[in-house]
């Protein structure tokens, strides 16, 4: 018989349940029983056998799926959707003391107000002002609900990216897409519920935790997908492996993992691994078909800008997003911008001219395509970054980060198109009228999906944790 290494005590085969029953006169077992009772209503949603199933929302939803267009780096509301005439009038002057300039007089002198060179024209029947940086989106103005009064809590990229994605400036919380897939499951068992289409130029500030599952079961994290014949890395079986052989291997691995799981109690990482093997097997045929654009018409390809080298890459991912939601993927997040992206510290005009050219036509194409295919009434589209930009100049022609007031727009299912909600102050520095915090935005998105943000919870560190923490109010003014 092989025993423990010399110097180590014999292995105690008692389980955690045995320890709880014996420790402290059994009070540990009493506490554990109470906690398990509290978690019974989550057993179905959290079990390894049901991670990919469809689940009922709290109430009738307006939206069934989400496409989140994340403009990484922080797009300037002042150059896109929020014209501020007073900023133009005061351009080149110091920030007025009424805006809090007294304590920072030296910095104010070096960073005067910077007017925009953009022209804003009323667009659509609603007359929403849209910058001439975005001529194609201007043609879709009547689809948009433009929230001009968003606010967040951090001026730093990683923390702001985390908050916009997870509701918290701290790393390690579940992302919006993970909460949605946890609450609703997937509509297609052959594809993930939550797919991320990253910018090929590089990662995001904050990294993969921005679309991670945090303390939720690991199966709810975003699946990174790319265009081309290999949309998911390491998905294809080794050359020469037959389907029958692969199925036998997966069955054996599944039995061994299930035995291991049964002997050691709940383990979300292992449950996720079991599910991942099965999902990967099914995706070997479903994922390549979903990203195969050969069946798309030339007109469709042009609509998304695939005929122009400047828009082709982002346009391809917008087209993939449509194909994925069309096939039942619940939440698709598409990133525009590498580690710098829309981060216009040096020259906002040059930076945003480049980023808008890349994205304007594809996003407008996506909205038009969703509408004509009948998908707009069940798909929610979100556009925005982690914050906006300051009205003061930086380096003469750039703008610094601004979490105090910025713009996000929504379109599609349940949204009152052609709407402007809230305002920033006269120069675009802070949300001044009907401010919408990140928690409010998240509460609204969940509401459109039929989820009550106060009821979508998960037990973590002794409390029922949720996306919106202890805050969040649905912005009903933008709902149809």
Description:
By secondary structure, the protein is an alpha/beta fold. The protein has a single domain, classed as Alkaline Phosphatase, subunit A (3-Layer(aba) Sandwich), CATH 3.40.720.10. 33% of the residues lie in helices and 15% in strands. It has 14 helices and 17 strands. It has helices spanning 16-22, 27-38, 43-46, 85-90, 105-110, 135-138, 157-166, 176-184, 243-264, 268-290, 298-303, 312-326, 348-372, 438-448; strands at 65-71, 120-123, 128-131, 144-151, 194-197, 223-224, 331-336, 379-384, 388-389, 401-402, 406-412, 419-421, 423-424, 431-433, 436-437, 457-460, 463-466. The strands form 5 sheets. Strands 1, 4, 5, 6, 7, 8, 11, 12 and 15 form a 9-stranded mixed β-sheet that branches. The radius of gyration is 25 Å and the shape is globular. It starts with 15 loop residues before the first helix and ends in a 14-residue tail after the last strand. Residues 1-14, 26-50 and 102-106 have low confidence and may be disordered.
Query: Helix amount, in percent?
Result: 25-40%
Count the beta strands: 17
Quickly give the CATH architecture. Answer: 3-Layer(aba) Sandwich
Q: Over the alpha carbons, how many angstroms does the gyration radius reach?
A: 25 Å
Key descriptive features of the protein:
single chain; 480 residues; alpha/beta; nine-stranded mixed beta sheet; globular
Provide a concise account of the structure shown.
The protein has helices at residues 16-22, 27-38, 43-46, 85-90, 105-110, 135-138, 157-166, 176-184, 243-264, 268-290, 298-303, 312-326, 348-372, 438-448; strands at residues 65-71, 120-123, 128-131, 144-151, 194-197, 223-224, 331-336, 379-384, 388-389, 401-402, 406-412, 419-421, 423-424, 431-433, 436-437, 457-460, 463-466. With 480 residues, the protein is of the alpha/beta class.
């Amino acid at each position: 018989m092989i025993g423990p290494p010399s110097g180590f005590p014999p292995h105690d085969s008692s389980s955690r349940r045995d320890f709880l029953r014996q420790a402290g006169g059994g009070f540990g077992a009493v506490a554990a029983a109470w906690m398990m009772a509290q978690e019974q209503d989550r057993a179905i949603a959290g079990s390894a056998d049901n991670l990919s199933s469809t689940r009922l929302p709290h109430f009738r939803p307006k939206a069934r799926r989400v496409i989140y267009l994340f403009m990484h780096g922080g797009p300037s509301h002042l150059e896109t959707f929020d014209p501020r005439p007073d900023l133009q009038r005061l351009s080149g002057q110091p920030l007025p003391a009424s805006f809090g300039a007294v304590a920072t007089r030296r910095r104010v002198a070096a960073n005067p107000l910077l007017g925009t060179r953009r022209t804003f024209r009323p667009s659509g029947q609603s007359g929403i002002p849209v910058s001439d940086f975005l001529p194609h989106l201007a043609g879709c103005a009547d689809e948009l609900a433009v929230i001009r009064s968003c606010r967040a809590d951090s001026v730093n990229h990683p923390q702001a990216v985390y908050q916009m994605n997870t509701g918290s400036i701290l790393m390690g919380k579940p992302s919006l897409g993970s909460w949605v897939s946890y609450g609703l499951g997937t509509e297609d068992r052959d594809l993930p519920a939550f797919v991320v289409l990253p910018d090929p130029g590089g990662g995001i500030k904050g990294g993969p935790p921005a679309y991670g599952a945090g303390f939720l079961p690991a199966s709810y994290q975003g699946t990174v997908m790319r265009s081309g014949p290999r949309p998911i890395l390491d998905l294809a079986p080794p050359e020469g492996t037959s389907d029958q052989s692969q199925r036998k291997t997966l069955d054996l691995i599944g039995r061994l993992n299930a035995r291991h799981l049964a002997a050691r109690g709940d383990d979300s990482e292992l449950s996720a691994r079991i599910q991942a093997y099965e999902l990967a097997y099914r995706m070997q045929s479903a994922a390549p078909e979903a990203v195969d654009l050969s069946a798309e018409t030339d007109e469709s390809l042009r609509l998304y800008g695939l005929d122009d080298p400047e828009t082709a890459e982002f346009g391809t991912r917008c087209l993939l997003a449509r194909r994925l939601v069309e096939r039942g993927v619940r939440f698709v997040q598409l990133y525009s911008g590498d580690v710098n992206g829309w981060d216009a510290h040096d020259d906002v005009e040059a930076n945003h001219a480049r980023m808008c050219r890349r994205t304007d036509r594809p996003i407008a194409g996506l909205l038009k395509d969703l509408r004509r295919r009948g998908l707009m009434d069940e798909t929610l589209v979100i556009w925005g970054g982690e914050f906006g930009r300051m009205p003061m100049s930086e380096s003469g022609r750039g703008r610094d980060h601004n979490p105090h007031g910025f713009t996000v727009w929504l379109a599609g299912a349940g949204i009152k198109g052609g709407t402007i909600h809230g305002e920033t102050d006269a120069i675009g520095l802070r949300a001044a009228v009907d401010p919408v915090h990140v928690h409010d935005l998240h509460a609204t998105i969940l509401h459109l999906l039929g989820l009550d943000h106060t009821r979508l919870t998960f037990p973590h560190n002794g409390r029922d944790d949720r996306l919106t923490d202890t805050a969040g109010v649905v912005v009903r003014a933008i709902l149809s």
